[in-house]
Amino acid sequence: MRFLSNIKKWTINLFGFHRHDDYVKKHLNDANVRSSAYMTFIIIAIEIWMIIRSINKNVIPQVSNGANLFDSLFTNTSLYFLFMIAALTMLVFSVFYMYEKSKIIDNKFEKKINTLIPAFFAIVLVLYSFLVIKEISLFKNWNQRYYVVNNVSVIFLYIFAFLLGSSIIGHTIYRYKYGKNQIILSIIVIIFFSLMCLTFGIKVGYSDFFSRFYLGTGLPKEAGFNDSGAIYEIKSIICFLTMVLYVGCLLIWKPYISIAMLTSIFIGYYYLLSGDPANRIFPDGEKVNYITFLITLCAIAVSIYQQRVREALNSEDLEYNAKFDSITGINNYNYYVKEISELLKEISNYNEFYYLFINIENFKTYNDQMGFNNGTEFLKRFAKKIVEIFGEFPCARESDDHFVAFVKMNEAIDKINELEKYLIEDSNGLYLNLRVGGVCPRNAAEDINTSIDRARYAASLIKDKYNKIFIEYDDEMHKSYKKKQYVINHLEEAIENGYIKAYYQPVVWSETQELCGCEALARWIDPKYGLLSPGEFIPVLEEVRLIHKLDSAIFEIVCKNIRKLMDDGKKVVPVSINFSRLDFELMDAVSVFENLINKYDIPKEYVHVEITESALTETQDLLQKSIDKLHNDGFSIWLDDFGSGYSSLNVLKDFNFDVIKIDMKFLTNFEKKPVTKVIIDSIIKLSEKIGMKTLTEGVETTEQAEFLKDVGCGRLQGYLFGKPIPLEEFLKQIEDNVFKISNEIL
After folding, report:
1. Are 333 and 398 in contact (CB under 8 A)?
2. Which of 47, 571, 582, 628 would you label with 170, given CA atoms 20 to 30 Å apart?
3. 578 forms bridges with which residues in the sheet?
4. What is the pLDDT of residues 605-629, one digit of tens each?
């Protein structure tokens, strides 16, 4: 049964018995229109050649013998002129049909003018059809089969020419009124032109075949014979086969339609050639060639159809992906940008609109609590609601849980509030809020991506503000935004020119307060902005995933400085350097670090590696391997910022650290909250029991330092002992005995 089912499915697909969606239908029709453009170009060239040949062979000799020029020209070339005008009209129709599809013509006035051009050629074709019918002189000798076939085929040729022109005029009227193509009318146009091709092929092919094979009829010379009945050596049925080839291969319908049509035409033409009178001749060799041509043509038609369907399906997928978001089904960001670009060309009051960047705050919690699939369904519902609220103008999903919209300023707040209300209702009791940034287009030519990025920046500034969901991008933000862009665009230049520097903050033993090390911290001394604080560039570089370049530069600066101190014979204290979570994602951080240690030949005990606790919860497997590798290679690994967020004892259980660096937040309101001392004391004792040393940062008072010493915290760091300073100042303070280097530095 399965085999029979597969055979049935294969047959249905092969011969096109299944239904196509509107996109595939349109694609197939557009392909036929394109094919007809190529075909008509060839026909025009052939008909011009036939007109020139007829003039040289018939018109010029007749005029030389005293015949009227117009009568002679019209009698001998009217059929060729008719077919050439029809082909030229079809060519113009096809070209402008494709113009509308590709939107080459943008100006409205030009679009209307160019829409009317095919109608002009169609009107010429219709008028010429009437002229030919009026002047025709072929309708004679209806009692002779040869003339009957020729006269009927000529009549139908003119009828189809008239209908072709009329249908193109009808399509022009529709396109002029609605500004788009009409598929049904275009199919009718193609059908009438196909019928013209077939009729022309039958007429010419029948005449040639008849005059080649039919003997002894006593037909006059005009039929192709001399007085004695000898055959003129003229062409065979090649014109008919050529026209059928055009229709069958270049104007593709469903295979079962093409096969039925081609078979009917070939059978009908065969009986036409083999019919009365009695002396019919169709040599066996011609029959074999004839049937072979039919089979080959049917196979080609099926092959072209299958190829076009595959192209249509692939194109449909590509076009869908180019226009719609794969998760939510609404427009994607690229299509949004395209639509806004077109919209801004048509509106003059663009400064009365906002670009909106819409962010669902805390959506990660929804995914964690409700599951990824439910999160996806939520995004689909939310996206649908955005279209419902903002759909008057383009809106789209930008990425993740971020959306963009375009809205009138005076409607923005109400619509944002409506969306916020829906978000709360559909959040299953979880804490979700909107964060929306808005920016007004400065001019119609402004880069849309830049505007959306500014709206995104504005939205990011209202993070963690519960009662605020919308903020407009203003001049003050613009200054801050420009600095952010400056950081992104000039990072590599800053590294190359030495604007990025390592500042050193001392670390001391709690017992003696002697120097036992320091932490290297990045600073940016910029020629334009001066000293940029870490808060002005590190979050930006993390956001755009460039932080690894900064960290690599600091690694090398530290190694280079240690090497110089060693070469100068100066005493070296260990330096701790910070690894970002993104360092492990964006580069092979361990290899980069170890290569620098080897390059500058630095003893491994002189460099300590700090990894923030928050990094361990997001890339645990990757970091576990990296930490193990660094440990095995002899480096000391420190857990940085313990207690800065939602600290987990799993971190202490799963990872092997040499030092726990207690975050300064534990020391906030140290004197007023006794519980703080209990917590710090417990952390230090726990660390001792599991074999980890402790360091507390953020020490600012003598009282804090004394307490930490009493509870057994080994090392201290903070403004009480010194701020981060350039290497030159750090070394000078050592020389001036501001810092005394401990004999025990490891």
Report:
1. yes
2. 47
3. 610
4. 999 999 887 666 555 677 788 888 8
